[in-house]
Design a protein that fits this description.
single chain, 146 residues, 6 helices, globular, transcription regulation, transcription, MarR/SlyA-like, DNA-binding
């Protein structure tokens, strides 16, 4: 049975996504908590809306994760001095340590994978994945509007 290139790509994307789900499960994390910690580790300061937009997770999940992290002392909220309606999420020093400890093995796996592929393949993979994703969303949005 021949499998189309499109189907192979879809299966590879799904398989990779399941890898992240498996990592979350084996490290006692929910996907929304690991995504919040991941994003705040690499970007440092984000609004709840930015977290929703970057992760494509429901606002309710992001809100639940933010509340859990605040209650644990891992996250703080600050008000934007230019727009009092905007609140930024930032990891506290304890939260940064927690995120580093929790995500260390994931970052290590990602780094090993990237090194094995090499810089050139990683650049190609990133560019093609971004192009695929943007094009797919364009056609998906187009379909929904019809």
């Amino acid at each position: 049975m021949d499998i189309s290139d499109t189907a192979k790509l879809n299966l590879a994307i799904v398989h990779g996504s399941h890898g992240y789900d498996y990592w979350d499960q084996t490290h006692g994390m929910t996907s929304y908590l690991s995504m919040i910690l991941y994003e705040l580790t690499i970007r440092k300061k984000l609004t709840q809306k930015q977290l929703v937009d970057l992760t494509d997770l429901p606002k309710q999940s992001i809100n639940k994760g933010i509340k859990q992290l605040i209650e644990s002392g891992y996250l703080s909220m600050t008000v934007d001095p230019q727009d009092k309606r905007v609140r930024f999420c930032e990891l506290t020093p304890t939260g940064e340590k927690f995120a580093h400890e929790k995500l260390y093995s994931l970052f290590e796996i990602e780094d090993k994978t990237a090194k094995k592929l090499g810089k050139e393949k990683m650049k190609q993979l990133t560019a093609l994945n971004e192009e695929w994703s943007n094009t797919f969303w364009h056609f998906l949005t187009e379909e929904r509007s019809n």
